[in-house]
Design brief:
6-stranded mixed β-sheet; 4-stranded antiparallel β-sheet; 9 helices; binds adenosine-5'-triphosphate; binds magnesium ion; ABC_carbohydrate_import_ATPase
């Protein structure tokens, strides 16, 4: 592409057309993890690109948390390769991952409920002013920065002085996302950020996942929910019993197909058969055995339609 660089009012343009523009930030190649003789993950390929959302789906125990623990530096892979910016890595701790710009937002957010929003935003990385030994917290600058950063992500809170515990779960997730972006994350890992949220709150979190992508981050979005995944995802990886059952680009899979993969088609068909004998349960919408899509996603009808 030969689009001329946007020379707006800001003189300094940060992106100097990097040649590695689409180079994967994070890559797993045949990666796996065994806990003793429990093989939690095996032969998994995964790619995270700048400005892309990679969704990792799967049922309980499928290996989703194990996968992100490898990438976030909590555990080490025991097979295959793990690359960051094209170079093999092996993290000894989450600190190593953070140093590479890989930030993880866990579901049980590490916030202090009674502290104000701005204070939580800087928790552990407070701004200070003045020389030692009279160095003190730079409260004004922290408040102004937190306010600006939240606004940059489109998050408007009435009052940054309110204890973070008074925010909704969705809002707290959003603050955590804005915080990771501010502290220089290039890869953002979200472990089931919408699992405990209602429809509206989930929508808000999905919006900020899209906002993080707009800012060029690579996002790994772990979820049980194919609908949430499909709203923001560029790539979908479905884990099943520790292996990759499906890996598809958005253009190659429909929401229906993704939902069927997630539902575990064959199991649903068996469930339908059982439930039909119970009575009082409407099984009409469940798939029949044999009526399920094949493992590989059928291509969607293309827009340039032949006939
Ligand atoms: N520390 C551990 N020691 C032994 N086995 C483990 C350990 N952590 C996970 N496992 C096993 O590895 C498998 C995958 O677990 P994992 O937590 O990655 O699944 P998950 O997809 O995150 O599930 P959930 O949706 O319930 O969070 C499971 O069989 C689990 O019992
Ligand atoms: Mg998990």
């Amino acid at each position: 592409m030969t689009t001329s660089k946007d020379t707006g009012t800001h003189g300094a343009v940060l992106q100097d057309t990097p040649p590695e523009g689409d180079r994967p930030l994070v890559e797993l190649r045949g990666a796996g993890k065994a806990y003793g003789n429990v093989r939690a993950l095996h032969g998994v390929d995964l790619t995270v690109r700048p400005a892309g959302v990679t969704c990792v789906l799967g049922d309980n125990g499928a290996g989703k948390s194990t996968l992100i623990k490898i990438i976030s530096g909590l555990h080490q892979h025991t097979e295959g390769e793990f690359l960051v910016d094209g170079a093999p890595v092996r993290f000894a701790s989450p600190r190593d991952a953070l140093d590479k710009g890989i930030a993880t937002v866990y579901q049980d957010l590490a916030t202090v409920p009674l502290m104000p929003v701005w204070r939580n935003f800087f928790l552990g990385s407070e701004m200070t002013k003045g020389p030692w030994p009279v160095r003190r917290l730079d409260i004004a600058r922290m408040k102004a920065t937190a306010d600006e950063e939240l606004r940059n992500m489109g998050i408007v809170l009435d009052d940054l002085e309110q204890p973070i515990g008074t925010l909704s779960g969705g809002q707290r997730q959003c603050v955590a996302i804005a915080r990771a972006v501010y502290f220089g994350a290039r890869v953002l890992i979200l472990d089931e950020p919408t699992a405990a949220l209602g429809v509206k709150q989930s929508g808000v979190v999905l919006k900020y996942i899209a906002a993080a992508r707009e800012r060029g981050l690579g996002v790994i979005f772990i979820t049980h929910n194919p609908h949430h995944a499909y709203m923001v995802g560029d790539h979908f990886s479905v884990l099943r019993l520790g292996t990759l059952e499906l890996s598809a680009e958005r253009a190659d899979i429909t929401l229906e197909e993704l939902t069927n993969h997630m539902a575990g088609g064959a199991e649903l068909a068996a469930l339908k058969h059982e439930l039909a004998q119970v009575g009082g349960v409407d099984t009409a919408e469940l798939p029949d055995e044999g009526a399920l899509p094949a493992a590989a996603a059928a291509p969607r009808p293309s827009a340039d339609g032949g006939d």
